[in-house]
Amino acid sequence: MTPATELGFLLHKHPGRVQEFSQSYGTAHVFYPEAGAERCTAALMLEVDPITLSRTRARNSPDFSLGQYVNDRPYAASSLLTSAMNAVFRTAMRGRCASREELAASAIPLELSLPALPCRGGPDFARRLFEPLGWAVEAVPVPLDERFPEWGDSRYVTLTLRGTVRLADALNQLYVLLPVLDDAKHYWVAPDEVDKLIRSGDGWLAAHPERGRITRRYLGNRRTLVQSALARLAEVDDAPEDALATPFTEPAEQEHEKKVPLNELRAEAVLAALRQEDARSVIDLGCGPGALLARLAEEPSFTRIAGTDVAFGAVRTAHRRLGIDRLPRARAERITLFQGALTYADDRFAGYDAAVLMEVIEHVDPSRLGSVAEVVFGRARPKTVIVTTPNSEHNVRYEGLTGLRHPDHRFEWTRAQFRAWAEEIERSFGYAVRHVPVGEDDPEVGPPTQMGVFTR
Known about the structure:
Rossmann fold, about 20% strand, RNA-binding, EC 2.1.1.386
């Protein structure tokens, strides 16, 4: 990124000024220790008032009498710092920068440093959290006392992350993972924390190998909230197959057959439909982090596979997940990944036996669904199109869920609404549709996912 001072535009904080932001527990300061063409450093320093903080006692606060006043909160990174990040860098975390839109959407070389970070789990846990996200991680334990090495290390680490990452993604990853490493929050964990977790973890949390532990710690091990979050991750983001497995299961209960996660049922239903239609070439429109693509790549009968998504970060994650650079040449040549938007005609969408839109249409503004239909059914015109989408009637079966299943959903249809849309596709583009329930078909509210298989 040249000049490096473009960082100031992305953060919406001018490198030439020191700025202060009042918080309920102290003051956040933003300043730039260096700002040059080759290197630019932005610093967020948080001054914590322990007296003010003591008025909101957290779940993991020290239980001795002076613990409310004598603690590490003013000196170490914690959920206090993430709250300040959200207040000071909110626009940057949303990935918005009107004057530098292309830069805001691009991965840039970054180095993040936290000199004193509580890390319950040690340096290895820090590496397990950040390395799957593409970071080079340096986690150095802080000794209890350098004068007495025999005392060993403290629970703090100096954490440095280096990588080429979109700034918004980096900030959101810190927002979720810093309190996870600390395993404590300075405020009561309310139900709306599930929405915050899903929003900040969009595009990376569902596929993370430590997603269960991240979710539990972030939500303070509150059973109902954790189960709701894991259900939504599996439903929306195509998490790996154990995403719905409860982390609270007792060993005796683990002997019983586990409930198959909805995302697994959905993938199996899509694969079954593709086999039934004898599809050999398949394009996943809105592939996300590549969960379905990985399943397709496992079956030699699918001789040509493509994945596309409007989010470049998702395409990059899918590339990493599939390990294309490590595959044998013949297998790698079967797979094509590219960035693309379904609302615009694109010749690269055409030429496949089948197209899959798995949990995609609900992310599109209703006013633009006509454009998507024209692009997929009118221009690309594969022999088979498979569409899955949530059944909003089933939402009452998700404990703790209020509103839509994901903050990025523009709508969620009832079964009647989905059938009406499918009938319009039939009339307009010459396809026939059959409807397939995915998941337990509740006699009152129907299945959690509805699937339409369109053929011409």
